[in-house]
Each structure stands twice: as structure tokens, then as C-alpha cells.
Amino acid sequence: MTANKPKKQRIINCVSQLPYKITLDESSDDWIINPATGNSALYSSLDYLQDSDEYEQIVVGWTGEISKKTLTKAELLKKQLEEEKLTSNNSKDNKNDSTANENNNGNNNSNNVHGNGLDEDKLYVTNEQMNNLKSKINKNYNPVWLLRSRKQSRWRNYAENIIWPLFHYILNPSTEVDLDSDGSDANNSWYDYVKFNEAYAMKIGEIYQPGDIIWIHDYYLLLLPQLLRMKFNSDSENNLVIGYFHHAPWPSYEYFRCLPRRKEILDGLVGADRISFQNEQFSRHFVSSCKRLLDSTSKKVKNDRGKDQYNMSVYGGDLIVDSSPIGVDTDKIMSEAFTPDVDSKVDAIRQAYQGKKIIIGRDRFDPVRGIIQKLRAFETFLAMYPEWREQVVLIQVSSPTLNRESPQNIRLEQQVNELVNSINSQYGNLNFAPVQHYYMRIPKDVYFSLLRAANLCLITSVRDGMNTTALEYVTIKSHDSNSSCYGMPLILSEFSGSSSVLKDAIIVNPWDSVAVAKSINNAFNLTKVQRETIQDKTWAEVPSIKSWTDTYMDQIVEVSKQSESQDRKKTPALNRPVLLENYKAANRRLFLFDYDGTLTPIVKDPAAAIPTARLYTIMEKLSQDPKNQIWIISGRDQVFLNKWWGSKNKHIGLSAEHGCFVKDIGTPEWVNLAKKFDMSWQVRVNKVMEDLTTKTPGSFIERKEVALTWHYRAAVPELGDYNATELKRLLLEFTEDFDLDVMEGKKNIEVRPKFVNKGEIVKRLVWHKYGTPQDLLKPLDQKLPIDEMPDFILCLGDDFTDEDMFRQLNSIESHWNGKYDDKRNRWGNFGFYPVTVGSAAKVTVAKAHLTDPQQVLDTLGLLVGNVSLFQSAGTVELDARGHVKDSESSKKSHAASVAYTLKRTGSSTSINKK
Ligand SMILES: O=P(O)(O)OC[C@H]1O[C@H](O[C@H]2O[C@H](CO)[C@@H](O)[C@H](O)[C@H]2O)[C@H](O)[C@@H](O)[C@@H]1O
Ligand SMILES: [Mg+2]
């Protein structure tokens, strides 16, 4: 009998592309699978986890652009003949239910569309072929299919042309203009990005089991954490744990803020429980962006590895941010780099450059890799040190990127060629060119042979996340490798993420070509002992992919354990289709809206937070429906609410200063519920606030009729936070005696009487004969029949003070539970929707969340018929191929798929004839 093996922890690893280059061979209708190039560190980590005894890894990734291996003329002819033969024997009872991918755009007259409705350029894949691919790749790898467009590269557009440049400090003017020759603009590109992320969420939905840990990689999938929260958290038992690792640099706030969709991106990302970066600087930049754009707070602590970690609170939810530099598979590198085949290649290189020092450079050919800077430094080196002329060769291998034809890359190519020519003509001769530039991909064995043959490796990137060439070079030159190449130095740019790891390499500023030239000279003049000492130190600094993966996994498992023990609740996204149905079925609807941060976004100046035309239109429509009663319950004062709401729409009830004042629907009078309250406290509170205002430039006091609010949003964040804590402390010393509440708002501290709060107002409005005028001074009638009270309540708020409203609704609901079970609607509830505005991770008693005022407006727009569900829903249901379910294009796709199936089976019947 075999002992029961302990169950492995399942981990769903999400990468932007599976580690394959996939081609469809048209002659056999079969797949050709080759390993993908690039991302070697990440793919090594996948390999490592795949063999783990502790974890069961399931990988989710896009197929990448699938290419077609087209038929030769002879093959085509043969196939046509076969098809004709088949057509004449056509069996009409073919029951194959395979469907091909959509998007012939219904354009059956276009030149490249066959009479049978098929677009020749497009890739059609049947269900059978999809299953076939699954059987050809690792069984735990799950392809995300995104085939709905002929231009498959569109899925990379936003990530590679907008996010990537900005994250590498390249401000790209094309963020707002057309990106594609086919006319799709930045917006389309953003929607593609959203759909790309949604397709992953859908695929994970098919695979996910409670208890799974999800690990997401890199900037193609920045929205996925939040999409997954929305998808899975409707089940409150579900302790979803999401880790995210960012492989690229994260820019400083001054750059990040230039991204048009900066807030959406942060909102998407903060759905994760743990976000990690390549180094401390990147994590600090991220924390700073969240602070400034999401009003998050953070505390820097040391983790159990002695590294800095930020414990953040974003929208009230917890998030850990830290850094953990990725490594390389050192064992594999050693075994692959020291084979007889590589030995002979090394000999050939050394032979070719006999008597010369070899500098090796290997970079992706893009502007941030610093190839220009490298060439300039090399040119300076030859100019400054004539003794090295004809003694040194720079072998620069530049691997082309996917967007080789982009204007930036074409310009770069010209510049590089000019520089190479100029150096070679000045310092070379007929027999020798000091720069050997190879603009090509090279196989791994050639790459390793170059690293082995090199006397020096020169990395001058002006920005990168982690330069794995640096790590691979140091590995190959390590003591353990081979004495013939041990101890050769590395010159590394301080702007490369790897410089924070390989601290003992020769670190240079690539913009300073004189300094780099001097470093090259110094490197060549190091004694053997000096070289070996440096090498031993840097080798000790190379992180292995195994330890990186283990550390990451340990920590995310730790988060998962904590999350289980704390029973951390995450709030599900509001289910808008159900809300809409419920709304339509209801007759006595009550809307309870907070104002700031709910109906309008939070802005620096409170006076500038005014309603938009769209908000007015939606509220107008809502309030015109006799089945609706609308209230705005705000911390604002009467003057503000009157100016922007009372004077504009008489059908809206108002409550000011967190419930101190109330103005009923259709009346101009305000009722003061705090009339009898002693206001002498205001003088003292005002004095303390004034003192702190003097100490905090940018802060100010908002004086309302009852409440006093100290605002510090415009202050320097750190000073503002510090003095807000101080103010709270000073106020709490005496406010208890006055029965006052000191409330922490969004970058404000408010003081108001304890006995009033928004919840009290909500209680009144619900326990009230629906549609009749309010008598706010009358006691509540809690015996009111349920049929006279609202049968639909949508209550929205973003702040701590709005929790009082949600709490009241929850308490009324529990009061009705058991008592009025026969009055439940067909969704099994009483139509109560306490909804917080903020992230899913926020601590709240609300039952659902909407991320921001934009989503609030979209949701209200949905109720009054202003927007389609698709625009409003935020997440979209996709079919297995990544098409929007039941959409117009999916119907067209169905037609195309039938045509394709018929074509494959040789039927002469065209769908157009049907
Ligand atoms: O209950 P609410 O309607 O949400 O009002 C709460 C407070 O909101 C206002 O301050 C907040 O919003 C401002 C505008 O976006 C922002 O500048 C400020 O930093 C926020 O704290 C308002 O000024 C307060 O009076 C309200 O009590
Ligand atoms: Mg608010």
C-alpha cells in the first residue's frame, strides 16, 4: 500500500505568453511548436515550479501571435485536387461542431475574402485544433486564445507602445494619437488591453479552485488582479490570494502620472495581495504613485529577510509591496555553456580574434539598452587610449524586437550603423574592424560561446528592470565554471536593475562616455588576483532562479495563511446585470448617495468638486421617474448642497454635515437636527486646527455651520500625514467631554457632534411611509408594514462615515430576515444594495463595491438607459476564444466558422447561399 502523498498547493501562474512560438502548418493542419525566445529567467522559474514536490503549477498564457506556415505552390495544387475529389464525394452528414474564430467583419465583398466568407489572411482554428494544441504542449499549460483579429499583435499594442516606453522613461507622444495604420487609436488600444486581461480572467475562471494561489507576471496583466477579485469574490468564503511580480522598471511618480490611464492601472493592480519589484527603488516609486493617485497610506518595515517592505492600505484594504530581484538558472547555464560543441565555438572565436581582447555586448535592439552609449564610450576609449587600438574588438549582438519597423527603431538602426561605420573607418583597417555589430537573434550555444570567449562584458542600458545577460555572464565567468574563462570583469550601467544586485561589478554611468572609457581601460589593467576577487564577490551576488521562486512562493503562501487566519474579507464587485433586473422589478426605489468620492471624484480643492453635466443628466432622469426617491447624504454644508443640487433639482432630498441638517424632497426648508447642541466646542477645536494649519503649509480649515474640517490634501504628503495624526491626538484629549466625534476622512480630519450621523438619516428614510413628506422630528414608526417601505435601496458611499449608512441597512435587513421572508424578491433578498466606492480589498460592511465615481456614473447610467451593459459592466463575458459572448461580431463569427468547417471538410455549400 502506498502512503498518501500530501496534497500539493496549487498555483496558477499567469504569464503574458506561453513559452512557445506556435505555427499552424497549413499542409498538415497541425501545429509546429518551438521554444519562445526572451524571458529566459521567467520561463526557467516556470520549469522549476513544474518539477516541484510542493506545488502543482498551472500556467495560463496567451498563445502569442500564431503564424501560418503556408503551402508551396505544389502543395497548394495537391491540396486543391484533394479538396475537389472530396467535394465530389461530399458527405453532408458531417457533424463536426467545430467553430472558427470570428471577425471577417461581415465584409464579404473585400478582395481578400473568399466567396465562402473567409478572409484569406486570417487564421482560423477549429475546436479540434485547439484541443490538439493542448495535447502537444505541457499538459499543465493553458493557452489563452485571442484570435478575433487578423492583426494579432494588437493585443500587445497598449502594453508595448504605451506602458513599456513610459515605464522606461520614454514619454511617447503617440499615447493620444493613432497607433495603427488600420486606424485604431489609443482608446481602441486600451480596450484591447482590457480585453486581453479579461481573457485571462475568463480562462482562470475555468481553472480556479478555492485555495489556489494566483501569481501574475508583468505589465501586460496589470488589470488582472482586480478583474479576478471581481470574478471570484462574490463567494465570501473564497480566500483568493493574488501575487504580482513586476519584471520591468516602475518609473518615478513624475513619469507615471503622465500615463493617461494611470488610475485605472493602479486600481487594477491593487487587487493583488502582494506586489513585488526588481529592486527597492521601483517599489518605492510604486508606493509613491499610489500615495499620490489613490490616497493610500504606507508603513515601511523590515521583512523577515531584513529587506524593506511597505505595508500599504489602499482604499482601506491591505497590500504588501516589496522587492525581490529575479535570478537565473545557474545550474542550467553551466551545463549548457560548457559542452564540447560550445568549447569548439569558443576556440573558433578566440582563433578569429587571436591576440585581441574581446568585449562582448548583447542587448535587445531598443533605445533603452544603451547601444548608442556603448558605441560612443568605445569610440572614446579608442581615442583616449591609443595603445589599445587594434588590440580590442567589441562584438555587439543586438537582437531585433517585434516592433523592428517602428520609427524609433528605424532611427536607432541608422544611428547605430553610422556610429559603427565611423568607429571602424577611423580605428580599423582592411583586415580588422574594431566593432563587429550583429543585428540578429543568435542561438543559445553561440551566445554562451561569446560570453565564454569574452574578456569583458559591457552593459550600458539607460533603463532596464533586470539585465539577465549580466547575471548569465557572471555565472559563466564564475570560479565553478572553467579556469579558461574565470574572473573576467563586467562593466554594468547604474541604470540597470541588475546594478542593485551585482553591487561589486564595475558600475558606470553610461551617459558619461569618458568615465566608461576609463573603466574599460581599468578593467583591462586589473591584475589576475584583482579580477578574481571582483568575480568571486559578484558571483556570490547572483540570485538563482530557484531561490527567487522559493522565496516568492514562501512569502505568498505566508500571505495566504495570514489571510485565512484573519478571515480577511474582500468585497465583491457589484453585480450590475442583477442590479438592473432588480431595479426594473421594483416599485418603491430609494437612492442614498454620498457626494464627494462617490458622485464626484476626489480633487485637490473641495470647491472644485462640482457635478458634471453627465451627472446632472443622469440624476435628472432618475428623479423624474415617480418610482424613485433620491437623497444626497453628505458631509458638505447646506450652502454647497443648495448651490449645486437644491437650486438645480427640486426632486432630490438633501442632508448636510453628516446628518446635522436635512431638506426633504420638494421643500426649500432645512431642518436643523443639531439645534439643541452646545456649540462652544467650536472655538477650542478651531484653535487647535489653526495651530496645525500654521505648521502645515497647504492645509486649511473648512468651517461649516456645525462641523469643522481640517484639510491637508495639498500639503506635502509625509508632513500632512504626520500632522494629521498629531491633530487627532490633540483633539481626542478633550473632544470626548463634548460628545464629539473626531473622524478621519480622505485627507481631512472632521469634528462634529456624536449623536448625528449619516446612518441615523438612512434609518429615518427607510422606516417611513414611502413617497410621503418627512417629519424629521417625529419618532420612527418601526411597525410600518413592509409594503409601505422601499423595495429597492441603492446606497453608495466611499468614506468611513458612509459605513454608518451601510450598517443601518444591514441591520434593517436582519430585522426583516425571518419576519418577512415571504416578501423577498426573486433574487432572494429585499432589494438592499449597500455599496462602497473603492477597492475590493477595502474593509467595509457594504455588500459590494464599485471602484470609483466613474463606475458609479456608468452604473446609474445603466439604470436610466444611458449606457449599454457592456460599457458599464467593467468585465465582459468572453467565449473560449476570447470573443465577447453573444455580441454582433460573435454571430458573424459563427457564420464564418460554419464556412470554415465546410471548407475544411470539402463541402461545396457556401454559407452565403444559406
Ligand atoms: O460625505 P461626503 O459628501 O463624501 O463629504 C465628505 C467631505 O468631502 C469633502 O472633502 C473631501 O473631498 C474634497 C473634494 O474632492 C477633497 O479636496 C478633500 O480632500 C476630501 O476630504 C468636503 O470638503 C468635506 O466638507 C466633506 O465632509
Ligand atoms: Mg464621500
From TrEMBL:
Biased amino acid composition, Basic and acidic residues = 83-96
Q: Name one GO cellular component term.
A: cytosol
- Compositional bias, Low complexity, is annotated for 97-116
- Top-level taxon of origin: Eukaryota
What Pfam families does its record include? Glyco_transf_20, Trehalose_PPase
**Which molecular function term from Gene Ontology is one that the record holds?**
alpha,alpha-trehalose-phosphate synthase (UDP-forming) activity
Gene3D superfamilies according to UniProt: Glycogen Phosphorylase B, HAD superfamily/HAD-like, Trehalose-6-phosphate phosphatase related protein, domain 2
* Residues covered by region (Disordered): 83-119
Q: Which GO terms describe its biological process?
A: cellular response to heat; fungal-type cell wall organization; trehalose biosynthetic process
Q: Which NCBIfam families match?
A: HAD-SF-IIB (TIGR01484), T6PP (TIGR00685)
UniProt lists the family membership as follows: In the N-terminal section; belongs to the glycosyltransferase 20 family. In the C-terminal section; belongs to the trehalose phosphatase family.
Q: Protein name, please?
A: Similar to Saccharomyces cerevisiae YDR074W TPS2 Phosphatase subunit of the trehalose-6- phosphate synthase/phosphatase complex, which synthesizes the storage carbohydrate trehalose
